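Readers of this paper often ask what the protein records in our data store actually look like. This encoding replaces a full spatial description with a residue-level series of whole-number codes. For reference, a complete record is included directly beneath this paragraph.
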Amino acid sequence: MTTVLRAHAEDQYAEELAVLAKGDDRVRPPGWKLSPWAVTTYILGDGDQITPKYIGPRRIVEVAVATLATDRALLLLGVPGTAKTWLSEHLAAAISGDSTLLVQGTAGTAEEAIRYGWNYARLLAEGPSMEALTPSPVMRAMAEGRLARVEELTRMPSDVQDALITVLSEKTLPIPELNREVQAERGFNIIATANDRDRGVNDLSSALRRRFNTVVLPVPATAEEEVDIVSRRVGQLGRSLELPETLTGLEEIRRVVTVFRELRAGVTEDGRTKVKSPSGTLSTAEAISVLTNGIALAAHFGDGVLRPSDVAAGIAGAVIQDPVSDRVVWREYLETVVRERQDWRDFYRACRDAG
């Protein structure tokens, strides 16, 4: 038993990776732990020993894996909640056996996060040296021939983003203070993620964008596909958090998914009623969060059965991001759509009481 709240993908799925490696007799690119075929099987599952980590079009995963086998970096682009980070972690785990070489992009990310920093105590005492240098995750990935992950690339300042240009084009990271450079070993590449909603924050320069192959991750195509994704992840999270056993009926999961999909699309599933969309994204990840919180409520403060009252407050919190406009949208949806569904009466009352 581990006390780690969330194990890295390579640790959590070590047995599956070992099974794939043992039976993998296909060609492996230099520095890869598995062949591209085995990596894709690890991501999508095989219906037997290997569980699916990503549910979506197979071709998207194949294009992503094939990109990483070339000299082009991979940019996973999509709206929030489309599993960009999740997919990047599992790709790194399967290909390099290490998903921890991570740079988290924020407005305050400095260039040192891409290049290198210094241990200033040693720098002052000994002067510039390799021993006084603090390598970034990208530098470590280059030296070790592994994948580096850059999360939320478009949230970084433009000058920090552009520190990647030399790394991606020349596969070299200069260290002018020491008149040296670090050259990338075979197996090195970068997986970056970016949010569709963040376009215009710090758009990528054309020079940097040319060095990425962009793969757009779509939202789940059908309600059944999204219900499947949510059910799997809610079950995994419940086990990892060691939540008490709860009777989680598909009915409540389906209701939450239906509400999110209809508000996202601006129309009901049957196409008969148009509804207003709130300001939030209402992603699959948010649906998973709402249901996980509902399970905790049902287990600790209820009778162990997930009911509408356990998810109502979470749904309202996810929908109402703007306290004025979104509240109007939510109330209108409740009265014009939810109220009219005969088998949703208990859900309607719970949402009204939570509102």
The longest strand covers residues 189-195. The CA atoms of residues 172 and 183 lie 5 Å apart.
